[in-house]
Design a protein that fits this description.
Helix 3 packs antiparallel against helix 7 and helix 8 packs antiparallel against helix 13. It contains 13 helices and no strands. The protein has helices at about 5-20, 25-40, 50-75, 80-85, 100-120, 120-140, 150-170, 180-200, 205-210, 215-220, 220-245, 250-270, 280-300.
Length: about 300
């Protein structure tokens, strides 16, 4: 019989863990995976039951991959977080979660992710190590390259590519050429992610310099970093227009792209070199809204007839 105090401790630990990995930030990658899945459905005949199973597999794969990556990142950065005034109250440096337990969860999620990929199709299984190298390797990149933001972008870009593979079983077109559509979407996600990660990285510019960590704000300065983030987000908007044109999407997706442009513009109005106090608002609220809007547009565009 499990005592009530033990149950309370378990629930407290689970809540602490979910807070540590920022489970709410799943709203960044997951909507693009789901949206890409529906875009991949166009011109395909998939039974309702089969589609439901595939969507569950996609959601599980993204959730497990993200949990593995975030857990590993918190474990790998535990000493850095302890030294940073902004992050020293995170679960591991504050002593609320044991580092070895967090690493174990990451390992279990890696195993679960590979198992889910194997259940989807052979290509998903073959590509799963590539995904893991990118999303886990990101945790070390800040130690040696300012391009760490693009590596994070590449990690999130794996979500729509993986969903496409889950639905179609290939990244090739009917003529055995590279299918451009999922790569355009992945490129948009990569630029978007790198842009908002640069914004977020501005909060740690001084600390990164003191600790000899690499980032765009540390290398270029906050003003130039914000300009580069603006260019990356402009590139994301152009990629969405390219996706609309190339994939022959409808007016709805074009309208969604227009809204995204406005939200990105507003995001950069919120953050200024002399005022970084609204970075967190720009980082989460607006970006979550962007991903959900685009997901809704892609679902409607690809909804099976």
């Amino acid at each position: 019989m499990i005592s009530s105090s033990t149950k309370t401790d378990v629930l407290t630990g689970c809540r602490e863990f979910l807070e540590m990995i920022k489970i709410s930030h799943t709203l960044f990658a997951m909507p693009f995976a789901i949206g890409a899945a529906f875009l991949a459905l166009r011109e395909m005949q998939v039974a309702t039951q089969e589609l439901a199973v595939l969507l569950v597999q996609i959601i599980l794969a993204v959730a497990l991959a993200r949990t593995a990556a975030m857990s590993f990142n918190r474990w790998a950065d535990r000493h850095i977080d302890a030294a940073n005034p902004r992050t020293r109250d995170r679960s591991i440096p504050a002593g609320r979660l044991d580092a070895s337990t967090v690493l174990l969860v990451s390992v279990l999620c890696v195993i679960g992710f590979v198992a889910v990929a194997a259940s989807i199709n052979p290509l998903a299984l073959k590509l799963s190590p590539v995904v893991l190298v990118v999303i886990l390797g990101y945790s070390w990149t800040k130690r040696f390259t300012s391009l760490c933001h693009l590596v994070l972008g590449a990690g999130l870009a794996m979500a729509p590519l993986g969903a496409w593979v889950a639905i179609r079983g290939t990244l090739l077109s009917a003529t055995d050429q590279v299918d451009t559509t999922p790569w355009i979407l992945a490129g948009a996600v990569m630029l978007w992610t790198a842009g908002f990660d640069i914004l977020y990285g501005c909060l740690d510019t001084d600390f990164d310099r003191e600790q000899h960590l690499r980032s765009i704000p540390e290398s270029l300065g906050i003003t130039a970093a914000l300009r580069l983030a603006s260019l990356l987000h402009a590139g994301m908007g152009l990629m969405l227009l390219w996706l609309w044109y190339w994939a022959q999407l409808g007016l709805l997706f074009l309208c969604a792209t227009g809204i995204v442009w406005l939200l990105l513009f507003y995001q950069h109005r919120l953050v200024r070199p002399d005022d970084l106090g609204r970075v967190n608002r720009a980082f989460f609220n607006l970006n979550a809204t962007i991903s959900v809007i685009l997901m809704a547009a892609m679902i409607i565009e690809g909804w099976p007839a």
